[in-house]
Amino acid sequence: MYTHATISMNNTHTNTNTNKHTTIKSNKFIDQHCSRQKFDTKLVQCKLTTVINKKLKLSKASRSLIVDFYSATTIKERDTALSSIVNSDNFLQENADLLYRYVDGSYWLKPDFDRVVIGYYVTWEKAKEISQKFTLDSLPKGWKAKRLDIKENYDNKWELRLPCGNKIRLFFNNQRNQLSFRHIKIDLSPSYFSDKELISFFSWFNAQLGSERDDAIRESVIASMENGLQLHQVFTPLVVHRNLIGKEQKFQWEIRGERQDFNQASYDAFLSECDSNITNKIYCPVSKLYNLIFNNRSYTQSDARTLIENISHAARLESSYKYSFKKKAKEYPLSELENVPNFLSKFDLVAPDSYLYLGSKPRTRLMKERIINESNKMMTRSIALSSSMLEPKRIAMLKHYKEIFLI
Predict the structure, then answer these.
(1) pLDDT grade for 363, boundaries at 50, 70 and 90
(2) CA distance linking residue 155 with residue 128, whole number of Å
(3) How is residue 335 annotated by DSSP?
(4) Distance between alpha carbon 392 and the CA centroid of its chain, in Å?
(5) CA dist., res. 305 & res. 70, Å (int)
(6) Cβ burial, residue 185 (10 Å; 0-12/13-18/19+)
(7) How many CB atoms lie within 10 A of CB 206?
(8) How far is residue 395's CA from residue 393's CA, in Å, rounded to a whole number?
């Protein structure tokens, strides 16, 4: 019997140490919904893997609860699966133990560079000159260009794509004709690419800047940046903001067009001291993968189970920086990439073992609403990632990428 559904989100906006490998068992599943290459690309984009480290492995009973939750294709099935999780102290304890691995030691802390948008200070004429190279197919080896038809305040919009599907977007000639908004903008997700691929692109791009290169880089601006941390094998609904710095934003699941009483993501939005916009995000990369693979098409419960049975689930933490032109915030050029404000180590989370001291109803509410009320705060405590362990790794990562961007 087939149960068809589409799962999507409202307001939707790496590498792992490995010991044990799993692979997709059903070629039919891959052929029906996407190519193997596309599947691998989408895994990278969601920072998920088919690989499970033995030290992070859950018991069979807990893994079964995870599979039931993510393979649900109706709201009733999702609620039933969550109820089983809520009432399993063993599951909650296992997840608490996993999350503390990330909190108590540096071994599992592996920050990644999810996105950056860079504005380059060049003349109108230079931006137009470079944009014309795309029509002449004067591109770095292995890259193909496609003109974009999207709403942006730029005259020329292009996408450079590799055969695997990973892409870099470039925008030329700001329509406001104001250098403060920069006439070239590049938008990419560095963690999607190998160092070799990024070197190929930036060697080509920086050469195109010609005599304007020094000014372009010195007066560049980081318009947006996202650093993240993947908590492999941790169940996302158990990762909850305990205290917010700013204003909360919630994002809910939909199944077959019907919105669930279940928050897939929870954001903490606030201003940094330099007047730029910061958003600390907790969201579910598994649901993102489902959206990318099935793309709002109907799929069976068997398809849903095949997918979750062959990947390692995870929870996702991200800290997003966005420069504010309106507030004339402090500008950070490319040479100061590692100094851009970031609050990845500032998450104030509910200690995972606190769930064990709550009744069934408060547990369910926490996992569904993803925010703790004042009455339950008295029965829980906070945990935070270690800044002394996480920040040196994040800074070293950014310095490494900066060397590539400036090659």
Answers:
(1) very high
(2) 9
(3) G
(4) 21
(5) 8
(6) buried
(7) 16
(8) 6
